[in-house]
Amino acid sequence: MNFSPIGISLLLALLSPTLLSGSGDSRTLEDEFPPTVCIVGSGIGGSSVAHFLRNYSVYSDLDRARILMFERHEIVGGRMRTVTVSGDTFEAGGSILHPKNYHARDFVERFNLTVRLPTPIEESCALGIWDGNKFIFKTFGSSIKFPFVDKIVSWVNDLYIFVRYGFSLLRMSSFIENTVGNFLKYYESLESRPVFDNVEGMLKWSGLYNLTKLTLQEKLSEAQLSPLLVNELVTVITRINYGQSVLISGLAGAVSLAGSGGGLWSVEGGNWQMAAKLINHSDVTLHLNEQIDSISHHGNYYELNSTKGNCFKCDITVVSTPLDEVDIQFSPAISIPKRELQHTHATFVRGLLNPGYFGIKSVSDVPVLVGTLEDPRIPFSSISILRKYSETDMTYKIFTRQPASDLLLDELFSARTETVRIDWGAYPKYHAPEVFAPFILDDHHLYYVNAFENAASTMETSAVAGENMARLIISRYRTEKSSSSSDTRSCSSGLHSDL
Question: Does residue 446 contact residue 302 with C-beta atoms inside 8 Å?
Answer without folding.
Answer: yes
